[in-house]
């Protein structure tokens, strides 16, 4: 299961989810307060099924940079060797 929820998104989900859960425990229990489990769960896992279905990946930019970084370093080293 590949993570598709970025750091900022995860923090917001957990904070808002805990806020909704707090409402359920202090007596402001609305039906929406019980749905607080979902954002806390997806935020803690870093994976959201809805994002997967829609093709959204809020942590994709960082991963692509990290994935291509070794290739770029190797290319730059090759250029440095040619210049010498």
TrEMBL record:
Transmembrane segment boundaries: 12-29, 35-54
Inner membrane protein YgaP-like transmembrane domain span: 1-60
Keyword terms: Membrane, Transmembrane, Transmembrane helix
Database matches in Pfam families: YgaP-like_TM
Lineage: superkingdom: Bacteria
UniProt xrefs under InterPro entries: YgaP-like_TM (IPR021309)
Protein name: Inner membrane protein YgaP-like transmembrane domain-containing protein
Organism lineage: Bacteria, Pseudomonadati, Pseudomonadota, Gammaproteobacteria, Chromatiales
